[in-house]
Every structure is written in structure tokens, then in C-alpha cells.
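quick one before i forget lol
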Amino acid sequence: KDATVWRKPSEEFSGYLYKAQGVVEDVTNRIVDHIRPGPYRLDWDSLMTSMDIMETFEENCCVMRYTTAGQLWNIIAPREFVDFSYTTSYEDGLLTCGISLDYGEVRPNFVRGFNHPCGWFCIPLKDSPGHSLLTGYIQTELRGMLPQSAVDTAMSSTLANFYSDLKKALKT
């Protein structure tokens, strides 16, 4: 009820490009502040277990390392990602985008995942002040020995939960 999720084969790798879209009751700046790398993300994103900003290039541009919890009763082991992240104005709203980098050593007990080009667009709804349309394009390669059906199940439910968790965080 919070989001609609679609998928199609990715042109970047053998998995899928996911599109998630939903209306969020808040202004674009506040929504994107909760999504991009920074202090809010760990407070509400139940999948993310740690996040470190490794390098900052300018105010809205950084390299971050983050880890995710195991999923589906740990069929999908915890993952580590190192992403380049950039946030900028886009039309009347904001865009936060990223891509994984081959950077640093993989920490023990993690599989290094890889995010192909992805991003979140957040634009205000003209007919409904105080509401924004949040659209995400995600193409995550979890890597490791995983059945594709487990990855597909995890991605769809993770993206749907992302919206409901974000909405709860914005209400506090």
C-alpha cells in the first residue's frame, strides 16, 4: 500500500533493474535528507547496520561504506557496499544517486555487493502541497552463492518496507 515495485532485466548485469514509486507525506528536502548518506539513515533503515563516510569531496558528494543485515533467515548473508554518492537539485525536486566502487578491503563476515547505477528522485506534488513523489531505480548485485528467486523475493519486500519505514521515520 505504500509503494509500487516493478522490475525488468538490467542492461548492466544478469539481474534486474527495480523501480519503486510511492507518494510520501513530506517535503522533498526532508525526505532526501533521510535517504542520502548521513545521520538519519541508520536511525530508520532496518536493513542498514552500519554506515561510514570514507571520503567527502564536497557537501553533497562522498564515498560511503555501509553494511546490511542478513535476510530471509540469513539465506542472504550480511552484505557490505562501498558507494560513490551524489545529491543534487533536479527540476523542482532532488536526486540522490550512486554507484559502487571497487575500494578497500572486504571486511570479514561480509560479502561485497555491488550497486550498478541507481538513484532516488523526489519531486513535490503540485496538486498536493506537503506531499512528494519518491521514485527509486535500484540495481543491486548481491553477489555470492544465491538462488535468483531468493534475491527477487528479498528485493521486492525490501523496497516495499523501505517506504513504510521511511514514512514512520518522517512522522517522528
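fyi Residues 148-171 form the longest helix (24 residues).
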